[in-house]
Amino acid sequence: MAATTDAWRRDMRVLGAIFALTTVSVAVALYVLVVSVLSDAEWDGLHLPTSLQAAQRLGDALQSFATKAPTRLLLAHMCCYLYLQTFAIPGTVFFNLLGGALFGITWGFPLCLLYNTLGSVFMFLLSRQFGRRVLLHYFPERLTQLKEMIDGHRDDLALYMVFLRVFPFTPNWFINMASPHLDIPVLQFSIGPAIGLIPYNFLSCKAGLILKELRSRGDIIDTTTTIQLIVVAIVGAILLPRLKQRFAAKATIKDTEEKKED
């Protein structure tokens, strides 16, 4: 028992050290890439917006820096996003908004989707190396429940991983941590966020683009935005209920078979 306790504590210390080292590295990268080269005017614009005008000033300040140093801003955005996603720190939605505002839908959306997927894979790999004993110590019942859900859908595992992202019955961070210990290959795991989080990333990046182009409250929903939202809604209305029915029916069949065996 003591050996098991020492093992999970040791893993926690290793994860803590990795987190601390990564935090320092990201802070240094942000200082070198952004902070050290900001002008006074850009600094003045970096405030949490409390009005439409303040939001516009924030967007103008960031856009000014993006025009002056686009590569620096791109690298800083990537570092922050991967850092938050890898360690399950809340705030990626804010960087989706920034991605849409600074890089537009054409670049911001695929970049944010890529970072979301890569960050999830990084968390998967960290957990595979150091997370098993930590999960068993803190979340044994939740891990068992997720294992039962996964075991019922081994035949269509990739599709089910997408389903879990679209319908987050289990938090995304827990799926990222638990998956390597449920015999889920990294390729099939990565399909989940890469496809299942498309609507979330698209809509949040689109919201950031709207913020950038905002000049009045009447600009919030224009014709293009309305059409895009309608397309997303139609696709969701057609595909998502079918996915839900598919896996719900499969779970019901499995439960019935188990009762017959009993």
Automatic annotation (TrEMBL):
Domain of life: Eukaryota
Keyword Transmembrane helix: yes
GO BP terms: autophagosome assembly
InterPro entries: TM41A/B (IPR045014), VTT_dom (IPR032816)
Transmembrane segments: 14-38, 73-95, 101-126, 157-175, 220-240
Alphabetized UniProt keyword annotations: Membrane, Transmembrane, Transmembrane helix
Bilayer topology term: Multi-pass membrane protein
GO CC terms in record: membrane
Subcellular location: Membrane
Domain VTT span(s) in chain numbering: 89-208
PANTHER family the record matches: PTHR43220, TRANSMEMBRANE PROTEIN 41B
Family the UniProt entry places it in: Belongs to the TMEM41 family.
UniProt-recorded name of the protein: VTT domain-containing protein
Upper lineage: Eukaryota, Sar, Stramenopiles, Oomycota, Peronosporomycetes
